[in-house]
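Postdoc handover notes: sequence design on the structure in folder B. Input tokens:
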């Protein structure tokens, strides 16, 4: 995958002297810089622009799961928005009032919010990821943010960081003190779907090669078959991708694999049609789910999940496989159990972290726990 360097930086005055802007300028010497008081919405879409704003919202949020389906208790670390990989199905396309790549320049405030949260929530285990509103590594060659957050998580006793990407921009991960607290995760699809629906992303071979390299650097891995897309040769396509996955990496490094069939809000359909005319994804048959999203019929979803989970279990029967936002009956039909039978989805994923990464949920703070740790 070729790194696409932004050619124009627009920064808000409040972050004009931030370390992030300084790093961007150093790594993008050709890019022009414009400083403005406030970046409004509707500046026009351009993959060549990166905006650096003074973010006033919450950096740490609960994943917007839904009460209607099993939710995994994940937390999102919000570092920026939008993504120029521009996958046909991407939900971010609906955020058209904010179309450009946007980074939050006040990273010092992000770290203080994150430290505050972790010191006030010392019990349990926190699974935190950055790849919800953008790709975790897309701009990392220019921002170097992983060189700050990966070592930060290495010092947290009960938190793990998941970086989710469709790139192979892993150079900044080399030589970092990750302490075994970072999971690097890729979403996977058959090559044919990647070429048609995610053409600007890293190829599946590039992603698997990057995963192999990360495992050799001691990172843990995760994979997300999400969105699973219905097409004529889906069984051979997904089957081959799974074979290639286990040829590339040892399952002992994989903390979890999630499965989620294509789903989208009805509003996205005309946007996909207009912006991605060669995409076929909107021409399937869909029903509206409890969360109002359009999904494939339940039997089709259950068939996908059952098939993919079976192929994964052939490689490693113990590997943690979970469904993203599905109901108990789909879990039972496709995986043979539902999360409640194993204590709930969040504890299931916590156990996967404990088993693979050796990081257990904290259950007892013990004597003197209110004193700050040396590492904080
Ligand atoms: S890589 Fe992820 S965030 Fe980027 S366009 Fe594709 S789906 Fe959206």
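Designed sequence:
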């Amino acid at each position: 995958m070729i790194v696409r360097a932004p050619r124009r930086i627009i920064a808000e005055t409040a972050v004009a002297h931030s370390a992030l802007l300084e790093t961007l300028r150093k790594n993008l010497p050709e890019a022009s810089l414009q400083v403005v008081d406030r970046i409004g919405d509707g500046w026009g879409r351009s993959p060549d622009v990166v905006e650096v704003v003074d973010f006033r919202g919450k950096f740490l949020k609960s994943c917007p799961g839904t009460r209607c389906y099993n939710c995994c208790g994940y937390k999102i670390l919000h570092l920026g928005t939008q993504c120029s990989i521009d996958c046909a199905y991407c939900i971010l396309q609906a955020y058209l009032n904010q179309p450009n790549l946007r980074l939050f320049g006040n990273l010092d405030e992000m770290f203080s919010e994150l430290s505050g949260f972790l010191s006030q929530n010392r019990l349990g285990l926190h699974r935190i990821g950055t790849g919800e509103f953008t790709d975790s590594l897309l701009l990392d060659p220019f921002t170097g943010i992983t060189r700050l957050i990966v070592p930060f998580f290495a010092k947290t006793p009960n938190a793990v960081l998941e970086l989710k990407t469709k790139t192979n921009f892993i150079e900044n991960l080399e030589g970092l003190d990750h302490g075994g607290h970072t999971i690097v995760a890729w979403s996977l699809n058959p090559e044919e779907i990647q070429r048609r629906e995610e053409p600007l992303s890293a190829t599946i071979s590039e992603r698997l090669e990057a995963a192999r390299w990360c495992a050799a650097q001691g990172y843990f891995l995760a994979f997300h078959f999400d969105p699973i897309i219905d097409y004529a040769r889906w069984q051979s396509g997904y089957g081959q991708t799974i074979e290639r996955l286990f040829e590339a990496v040892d399952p002992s490094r994989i903390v979890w694999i999630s499965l989620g069939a294509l789903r989208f809000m009805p509003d996205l359909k005309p946007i996909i049609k207009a912006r991605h005319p060669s995409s076929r994804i909107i021409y399937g048959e869909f029903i509206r789910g409890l969360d109002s999203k359009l999904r494939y019929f339940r039997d089709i979803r259950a068939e996908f999940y059952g098939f993919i989970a079976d192929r994964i279990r052939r490689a490693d029967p113990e590997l943690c496989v979970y469904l993203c936002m599905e109901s108990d009956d789909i879990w039972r039909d496709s995986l043979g159990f539902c999360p409640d039978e194993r204590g709930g989805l969040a504890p299931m994923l916590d156990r996967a972290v404990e088993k693979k990464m050796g990081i257990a949920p904290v259950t007892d703070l013990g004597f003197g726990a209110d004193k700050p740790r040396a590492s904080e």
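Context for whoever picks this up: The domain at 57-76+116-357 is CATH 3.80.30.30 (pyruvate-formate lyase- activating enzyme). Don't rerun without checking with the PI first.
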